[in-house]
Amino acid sequence: MAHGPDKSGRGERGNSRSGGVGPGDREGAVGRESRAERGISQARRIPRWFPLVLGGILLGGVLVIGFWSPEWGRGPAPPGMVWIPGGTFLMGTDDPHPFFADAHPIHEVEVRGFWMDETEVTNADFARFVEATGYVTTAERPPTKEQIMAYLPPGWSEPPPDKLVPGSVVFDPPSHAVPWDDESRWWKWVPGACWKHPEGPGSSIAERMDHPVVHVSWEDAQAYARWAGKRLPTEAEWEYAARGGLVQKPYPWGDAEPNAGGLWRCNIWQGEFPHRNTREDGYDRTAPVKAFPPNPYGLYGMAGNVWEWCQDWYRPDYYAHSPRKNPQGPEISYDPSRPHEALIPKRVQRGGSFLCSFGFCARFKVYGRGKGDVDTGTSHLGFRCVKDR
Question: Checking DSSP bridges between strand 107-111 and strand 187-191, what pairing results, if any?
Answer without folding.
Answer: unpaired
